[in-house]
Amino acid sequence: MVALGLQVRTAVIADQQQISNLIFFESRVHRHLDWRAPLDWLGSKHYWVLEDERRITAALACPQDPPGIAWLRLFVHASHLSGPEAWSPLWEAVCAEIQSQGGATIGVISLHGWLQNILLENNFQLTQNIVMLEWFNQSVELSPMPAGVTIRRMTADDLGQTVEIDASAFAPLWRNSYPALQKALPQALFATVAEKDGQIIGYQLSTPNPLGAHIARLVVRKEAQGQGIGRSLLTDLFIQMRKRGLERLTVNTQDDNVISLALYQKTGFMRTGEQFPVFVYEL
How many domains does one find in the chain? Predict the structure, then answer.
């Protein structure tokens, strides 16, 4: 239900400055960690604002990418509104729009307790946690490259195959779309593929941060897993980092991804103790 004097409407490009002000000046801001900033999604479906006499007081964005998967990419509201007051009318509008178009899975990686309370009150289900790991200038054990495998720099021509690898290895919620990888590649500090017999069987994308780099994606085609491809991609990444004088590498993965956790811990990564819950709502 919308409070008296408030109006819910679809966000438009002209709202950019007002939404930007909310993100910058307000304390209750959720932003999905993504290749695209929240304002980049303006003009997409499932992006709504709450308005009070033509002044935007809250915004909520759940654009789908890939189709059928809608991460909560932005929720922000002005301080004079409570979280539920801002959330309820926007969430109702988003749900109605998504349902009218066939439904979707909505995911949220929650970094804030105040948001977790809202999600639980609205029947989101806690499904897993994202855990953080860190590698800091450990010695690198140079394991032999699997037979017939080469590692080279990723190019834009490789994106079609990398999308296929994501689809083979991940549940739909965690797959990268082609447009997402198009955005990701120019932002990567290191981007490499593992290739065998002319086919890409794994890849990694790492982004820069103030203390080193962060592995945003490391994945091996499902049928090629267990052959040392992931370890080879990591070893090559360690070597590239040392050449640049970088000493710290971070990564995050799901706490129930046993294979991924084992790979990182075997190559010297340690858990930082940080973890963030993942909530899902099926429409």
Answer: 2
Does 145 lie in the same domain as 89?
no
Number of H helices, E strands in the chain: 7, 14
Q: What angle do CA 64, 66, 67 make, to 5 degrees?
A: 65
Residues 26 and 142 in one domain: no
> Backbone phi, then psi, for 25, in 5-degree steps?
-100, -20
- What's the pTM? 0.93
- Please give the mean pLDDT across all residues of the chain: 94
Please state, in angstroms and rounded to a whole number, the distance separating the CA atoms of residues 265 and 263.
Answer: 6
Tell me the CATH number at 58. 3.40.630.30
**Interval 205-241: pLDDT, tens:** 999 988 899 999 999 999 999 999 999 999 999 999 9
Q: Are residues 23 and 50 in the same domain?
A: yes
- Asked whether 80 and 86 are in contact (CB, 8 A), the reply is no
